[in-house]
């Protein structure tokens, strides 16, 4: 029996440099989340980019555990010359919620082609894939994979 999983994504800050906050709340079927690790696979649309050098700096300072999966992309390229990229993020347990994990990812807007409309462009950040590993002790391990549909 699967428990309910609540996924919430929130974009923080204004302007070209923002933060993506991902929160995951699990229902009651996983007894001890203290033994679990949650890996988030987040696709980054072409209109955004994640700076791999910034991620390395955040890892060194123990702020976030994230790594770029995509290679050979240009962080300076505009939206129309870019491709989607992919980031893996280890979420941390939320100290204020016993059934919750959260992850933080800095994202940056790419330049877009000029247009004569209202001057605004929408970028859709899809839900991530969630991969969870729980070590329940005595050789019992639990895996959970939630894919977007």
UniProtKB/TrEMBL annotation:
GO cellular component, one term: endoplasmic reticulum membrane
Organism of origin: Macaca nemestrina (Pig-tailed macaque)
Function: Stabilizing subunit of the glycosylphosphatidylinositol-mannosyltransferase I complex which catalyzes the transfer of the first mannose, via an alpha-1,4 bond from a dolichol-phosphate-mannose (Dol-P-Man) to the glucosaminyl acyl phosphatidylinositol (GlcN-(acyl)PI) intermediate to generate alpha-D-Man-(1->4)-alpha-D-GlcN-(1->6)-(1-radyl,2-acyl-sn-glycero-3-phospho)-2-acyl-inositol and participates in the sixth step of the glycosylphosphatidylinositol-anchor biosynthesis. Probably acts by stabilizing the mannosyltransferase PIGM.
Keyword RNA-binding: no
Oxidoreductase in keyword set: no
InterPro entries, sorted: PIG-X/PBN1, PIGX
Alphabetical UniProt keywords: Endoplasmic reticulum, Glycoprotein, GPI-anchor biosynthesis, Membrane, Transmembrane, Transmembrane helix
Membrane topology: Single-pass membrane protein
Taxonomic superkingdom: Eukaryota
Primary subcellular site in the record, as a coarse category: endoplasmic reticulum
Family to which this protein belongs: Belongs to the PIGX family.
GO biological process, one term: GPI anchor biosynthetic process
Residue ranges of the TM segments: none
Annotated compartments: Endoplasmic reticulum membrane
Annotated signal sequence range: none
Record-given protein name: Phosphatidylinositol-glycan biosynthesis class X protein
Pathway: Glycolipid biosynthesis; glycosylphosphatidylinositol-anchor biosynthesis
């Amino acid at each position: 029996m699967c428990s309910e999983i609540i996924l919430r994504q929130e974009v923080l800050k204004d302007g070209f440099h923002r933060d993506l906050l991902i929160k995951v709340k699990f229902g009651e079927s996983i007894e001890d989340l203290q033994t679990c690790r949650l890996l988030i696979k987040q696709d980054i649309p072409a209109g955004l980019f994640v700076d791999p050098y910034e991620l390395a700096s955040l890892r060194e300072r123990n702020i976030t555990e994230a790594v770029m999966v995509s290679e050979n992309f240009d962080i300076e390229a505009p939206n129309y010359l870019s491709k989607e990229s992919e980031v893996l993020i280890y979420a941390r347990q939320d100290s204020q919620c016993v059934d919750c994990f959260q992850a933080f990812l800095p994202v940056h807007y790419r330049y877009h082609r000029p247009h004569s409309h209202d001057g605004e462009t929408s970028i859709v950040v899809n839900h991530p894939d969630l991969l969870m590993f729980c070590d329940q002790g005595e050789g019992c391990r639990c895996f959970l994979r939630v894919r977007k549909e």
